[in-house]
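Late entry, evening session. Most of the bench is empty. Finally got around to the prediction I had been postponing all week. Sequence below, unchanged from the version circulated by S.P.
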Amino acid sequence: MTDYTFSKEQHSTKIKAGLLKAKQAGKKLGRPQSEKIKGEDEARDLYLYGIILDDRRHVFLTVQEVAERVGISKSTVQKIINKYKKDNG
C-alpha cells in the first residue's frame, strides 16, 4: 500500500468518525431545505385556475405553459403541484 492510499484511508476514517460523532450529538448535517420554491405561488395559481380571458372564456394551462410563463422548469412546476396536492388532499 502506498503512502498516499494509506493517508487517504486514514483521512476518510477520521471524517466518517467526525460525522458520526456530530450526528450522535444531534447536529443536522447537509444543506437546509428551502421552505418556499421560486415562483411557487404564481405557478400554483396558474396551474389551478388558469387564465380568465373574458367573462365567458377561461383557459387552463399545461405544466409546460406554466413553466414558460413563470420562468422555471417543468419539473419544478410538477414539484409545486405535488406539494399542493400533498398539503391539501
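Two things to note before I forget:
The mean pLDDT is 87.
The longest helix spans residues 3-24.
Will write this up properly tomorrow.
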